[in-house]
Amino acid sequence: MTAKWALAALLLASPAWGERLPEPGGAVRVALPGADVAALIEAHRALPLLEPLPADESARRRLAWPPLPGLAWRSRVLTGLSPVGDGARWLLEPVDGAGALADAVSDCFGGDGWVGDALRAAGTAPVVAVADGAVTLTFPFPVGPVPDLLGGCSLTDAGPWAPEADGLGGAASALAPRPLLASWHAVGPESPADLALGQPGQRAARSLSAPVPDVLVLLLPADAGDALGLSAADGLARFRTDLAPELLLAVHWGSRGRPLTRLLPPGLAPDVPEPDLAPVAATTLPLRALPTDAPTFPLRVQPDPLLDGVTDRLAVLLRARGRALVPGAAGDAALVRWRPPVRDPALALLALAGAWPGLRSDPADQERLASPDLLHPRAGRRLEAAIAVERGWLQARRAVPLLSADRWYALDARLRDVRLRPDGTPVLDDAWWTER
Amino acid sequence: MRRLRTALVLLLLLAVAVSVGATTGMHLAEIDSRMEADLQARADAALGSVQTELRQAAEALDAELKLLADGREPGLLRLPASTPAERYLWAADRVQGSAVDLLKVLDRRGTILTSGHWPASLGATDPSMPTYEQDTGRSPRLVQEPTPRGSAASLQRWRRLELGGEPAWLVVGYLLDEPGLQLMRARLGVPLLRMCWPAPGGERCLQAQADDVPAALLKRQAPLGVPGRLEVGLDRGPLDALAAGVRLRAVAVSAGAGLLALLAGFLLAQRITRPVEALAAASARLAEGDLDARVAPGSAPVREVAELVDAFNGMAEGLQSSREKLVQAERVAAWQQIARGLAHELKNPLTPIRASMDVIRRARALDRDDFDEILAEQAQTVVDEVARLKELSDEFARFARLPEAKPEPLRLRSIAEHAAALYVVDGVELVIEGDPPPVRADRHQLQTALTNLVKNAVEATEGGGTVRITLSEHPERQRVDVDDSGPGIHPSVRDQLFTPYVTTKGSRGTGLGLALVHRIAAEHGGSIEGLDSDLGGARFRLELPA
Q1: Are B125 and A312 in contact (CB < 8 Å)?
Q2: Quick check: pTM over 0.90?
Q3: How far apart are CA B431 and CA B322, in angstroms?
Q4: By residue range, what is the domain housing residue B370?
Q5: CATH code at B152?
Q6: Does B202 touch chain A (CB under 8 A)?
Q7: Do A247 and B122 touch (CB under 8 A)?
Q8: Residue B342, pLDDT above cutoff 90
């Protein structure tokens, strides 16, 4: 009876109900960088164990897909997720097949994804067991962000999409409802697209911004910062001044971002006072003609226009110090465009540390990363621990955050209900065309 | 003869080697010369092509510089007042739409206001500023230009401007990076292309080379057209391969010719030396007394050698004929000697016999009372002389009919002791020295020979003196020296010692003793000779084969 009254009240109260209802069908053209296309396909073919409840979820849709009890997460795989006791043990109640769920969780926690990276960096792994039709996760200490961890896990090939000849189309899955769109397919970055990664200077009818910007960070091996003068008292401030991140953002990213002095970007961690960097005057940067046997600075760089621009500027700074920038290999310094995969700051840093072994090579870093506080049930404790880890890296000059670059997508104005996952990947599961 | 043969073969080999070597050398020199000329022409063409490209590039730079500076590009004029982002992008955008790939503007301190090829170098200090200040930039120059990943050679022109009331330098150029130079090198089809130009701190060079740079390169240099030099390297491989092929074939031909020369030389040497060898062998036989030694006529292929063979055969014929005549004459002379001796020997007993018969006849005519005694005495004389005649006859028969030798191992010392025992005479000291191993000889003949020699020696001492028999062993022969302290060999008979009926002993000798010894020695393959003895007398040396 309560549900009927609630539904009636919702129908009467919602002005949106008068809007156009979703109609199935239609195709979407997606233009993303090549490296992101594979992740996009995988995200659509797999079914996540948990999904965060969209903040702007309408009451109608929330009614159709209710959140898990007591959580801001929803799932088509689980009917319940709850800690047992102090949080060292968690109970997962599957919709169907506890064995398959346990396997998926085990694969995810020990796999190559960010979840596996984070748990490896933390030096812990839960015991996954099946009992009474449920799956239990047992940690050595109380763990809070289990929903975030499970949100990074999925059931392979159980998603609402399946490969078609020309992209992905609706899959006949028992767990996921069939999508409204008939299909979507990837196109080249220069081709007309309905959904595209935003570029500097690009105009779009509608845009969808990722909740957390990308972070450009320079990851350095021990003592590599000396080549950039970072070990001097004002070395970091002088480096930032000479690097001119605002200029680089303006030139290469349409000023959609900002210089960054911390690793945890806005939106991931609350605003806390940034490290005090006294401003310094710009220095002279002589472009020296180096001899062939001049010292070098090997740097690994991912292929990316913004990274290329920053790299060119780093080359200027290094040249002024008598060094030549050369391509690096594993173990060398790396200029990384880091996209935090999860909204939890501690898990994000653990995932970063898991992906870059240099960030956990120092014993002090290892000790900080192994702290149970990074996985503590209370978010405040996790944030404090994450900030400690971040500060350790920054002070040791193992990680030098340079700037944040907003991530956004240009959308066709008629395309609705495109969602972004916590890692910024667009999802078309609920998308639909208002008119075609 | 082997040396002659070797010399002939080597001579032929040398002749072949010299002729083949000379021919090959001339061919190689000709090939080298032509290929070198071809390579030089290709190198000159490549150098000319690069120089042309550089000249065209310099002209294009000049045009771009005029377009920017003289045309007063609005963006350039606004540059001093532009934001950093605008300056950052201006040169890069301008380069994208222009023919040049290097464009930069420097302020009076050399600070980069904008850079097309390295926009991020904005605000940095350009190291080439001293060069720009010193030179007007009217003619292009090669400058080492910093780039994000190092530096690259660049062909540059520049001009001093006034921007916002301040001096500034506008620089345009082409980056001559290694990939670009590689393209040029590939287009020219040369394995090596290098540009070098003067730079602060020493010469700088940019080089492009093929993945498989040949080991042998022909390098040519030429001026760049701007300060610097240009060098190309062309593959000498085909030339060297051709030369190597010719050399290989020459070696093969030389080896074949050498083998043929060896074979021909050997055969020729054989044909030449064989009759010479035959001549030598025949000469040796001739020297040994074989007057029948001849060389087969017609065996010499060479006319001169054939003439030599004919001459030799003629000489041998003559020698044999002379020898036969000489032998004949000697034989006649010998028989005359024998006849004279025999007549003399026969006459010696006949005279007493005749005298005895005259005495008997006169005694009978006188009717001598003592006729019987006279008869008896004269008859005895006749008998004695007849006996002597018989002895003479026996000796001659022995000399003439020496029985066939029956060799057996004989100890020389026992034969010598036996002979010495027969002639033990008071006042004569007989000494025997040495005891060599046995010798194969006829016992009776050897005893006869030694007995004769000892008898002669004892008789030569005339009852007082020394006779020494020395027995010794020598390579391939054994020797018996019979020395005496007698008067020695009279010079008048020294050459006829072994001629029958030649004696110095008057009626006491038959003159057949030494002749018999000579014959026995000859029968045994040995020899006998008369020498002077250290004892003061004669020494007769008998040698027999061991």
Answers
A1: no
A2: no
A3: 46
A4: 348-400
A5: 3.30.450.20
A6: no
A7: yes
A8: no
